[in-house]
Amino acid sequence: MRFRFLLLPALLLAAFAGARVPPAVPALPLPGQVQPLAPGTRRAPALPTLTLTPAMPQVRQVEYLSNGFIEVAHAVVTVTPEERPGARALMAEVVRRVLAARPSLDEVDVSVYDRGSYAGFGGPLPLLTASVPRVRLNDFAAWAQGQNYYERAWQNPGNLPAFRPADRVRERTPSVSTPGGSQAALNRATLGLTTARVAGGLHGGLLFRGKPGAERIAALTFDDAPHPLFEPLLLDLLRRSGAKATFFVIGRNARAYPYFIRDMVAQGHEVGNHTYHHVRLPPLALPDATQEMELANAVIRELTGKPVRYFRPPGGEYTPATLRAAESLGLTTVFWTDDPGDFQNPGMTTLEARLDRRLRPGGIVLLHDNASEMLDVLRPFLRLARQEDVTLTTVGGLPK
């Protein structure tokens, strides 16, 4: 929606001051989700699965998906403490059998978890992960036997930050709160948010959209990356289209799947901060909120070799204190102009209509890397951007 700047004090301030945060919902283990299912969200249709014959008791699930060009599978494996020493050889056998069971697969990604603590994708991290394109199967098998280095594998070192459950929250209308503060403080913070939203460009550490100008450029962004099933499919689509994007990654996911972060950088994409555990910041004590940003920054810098410039708070929720903390870490807090709600699974027709009518120069499009409907709607959206002569790029590529 476009607003005239003169309406800012009277209309928008009151609207944002009255925003309410949805109540928390008890967490549920949902394998295959990067974060637990958010309130008000419909479950996505079940993904197709493979059944291995004869069965392997350690294989909990094998899902597969196509983006129209390539097909990828993700195998979830759980092991007992007694089975851990043979986990590499087990991974190699799982990958070999999955590829044999479905000849159309181009890649198999595998995550090995401790059976006793496994709680889905948002639970404790895997013990081992690997990404195995079919053409790299022999390289991976040699690594599994201890014969060489395989750069698309990760082993949990066991000294990672203490586990904190992800919040069941999805990005809604960005909102600011001032816990324990006065109404005057809330009004000032809300006015700053509204100014940044309406004026465009960078204001007070906030960025909602690019500065108005002649360039027909919009930013394409994805939250919650990386996911071992969806990431190779998404990166493949972007590579084929030539579009660039900013991935706001969850630090713990980046740690467990570092090869996908390196793929993003190699393809010219930008990697941003989405906290380490995907947690809402306003309820946290400021040192804890700052630590969430610091931990994610450290992982991203280690994997990319570059400083982190952009941050998106989970749920779009922040406080003046967390905004200042982000700035102190060199981060600009980034929101969006276009959230079609892909994580709600509203249906292809609805998603495509929302994306099409909101595409505009200077805009920031918000999608989620682990929403299956996103993959389906992204291809026509990329075509539309070309037809409208709008270049899709990173947040860093927007005029500010």
Automatic annotation (TrEMBL):
Residues 216-393 form the NodB homology domain. This is NodB homology domain-containing protein. The keyword Signal applies. It comes from the Bacteria. It comes from Deinococcus aluminii. PANTHER family: CHITIN DEACETYLASE 1-RELATED, GLYCOSYL TRANSFERASE-RELATED. The keyword ATP-binding does not apply. Pfam families: Polysacc_deac_1 (PF01522). Residues 1-19 form the signal peptide. PROSITE patterns: NODB. Keywords: Hydrolase, Metal-binding, Signal.
